[in-house]
From TrEMBL:
<keyword id="KW-1133">Transmembrane helix</keyword>
<dbReference type="InterPro" id="IPR010445">
    <property type="entry name" value="LapA_dom"/>
</dbReference>
<feature type="transmembrane region" description="Helical">
    <location>
        <begin position="39"/>
        <end position="64"/>
    </location>
</feature>
<comment type="similarity">
    <text>Belongs to the LapA family.</text>
</comment>
<keyword id="KW-1003">Cell membrane</keyword>
<keyword id="KW-0175">Coiled coil</keyword>
<keyword id="KW-0812">Transmembrane</keyword>
<dbReference type="Pfam" id="PF06305">
    <property type="entry name" value="LapA_dom"/>
</dbReference>
<feature type="domain" description="Lipopolysaccharide assembly protein A">
    <location>
        <begin position="24"/>
        <end position="84"/>
    </location>
</feature>
<dbReference type="InterPro" id="IPR032906">
    <property type="entry name" value="LapA"/>
</dbReference>
<keyword id="KW-0472">Membrane</keyword>
<keyword id="KW-0997">Cell inner membrane</keyword>
<feature type="coiled-coil region">
    <location>
        <begin position="64"/>
        <end position="91"/>
    </location>
</feature>
<comment type="function">
    <text>Involved in the assembly of lipopolysaccharide (LPS).</text>
</comment>
<protein>
    <recommendedName>
        <fullName>Probable lipopolysaccharide assembly protein A</fullName>
    </recommendedName>
</protein>
Length: 100
């Protein structure tokens, strides 16, 4: 829920920046590898900000997914160890051994 509110605040700040920047009519020339284009400054700033935001989310999703995968592997390993410990406790109890 906290992440949703943070994303909402960032989106509102993005819209506010677009509204304030829409009054700026300055043209910016962007050179590509094979061409060039003239764009308004607010459009360039908004697209670069949005691309950076998406790129950061992609990295975050990758790392979160990697951590969740490692956690699930560790939980499976823990369950296996607990199952073997329970079975060894059960075998020792059947044999009449007393645990100290």
């Amino acid at each position: 829920m906290k992440g949703f509110f943070i994303a909402l605040v960032i989106a509102l700040l993005f819209v506010l920046a677009l509204l304030l920047g829409s009054r700026n009519e300055q043209l910016v020339t962007i050179n590509y590898f094979v061409a060039q284009g003239d764009f308004r400054l607010p459009v360039v700033l908004a697209s670069v900000f949005f691309a950076g935001f998406l790129l950061c989310w992609c990295f975050a999703i990758y790392h979160i997914g990697k951590l969740k995968y490692a956690l699930s592997r560790a939980n499976r390993k823990l369950q296996k160890l607990q199952a073997t410990a329970d079975s060894s406790d059960q075998v020792s109890a059947e044999a009449g051994e007393v645990k100290s």
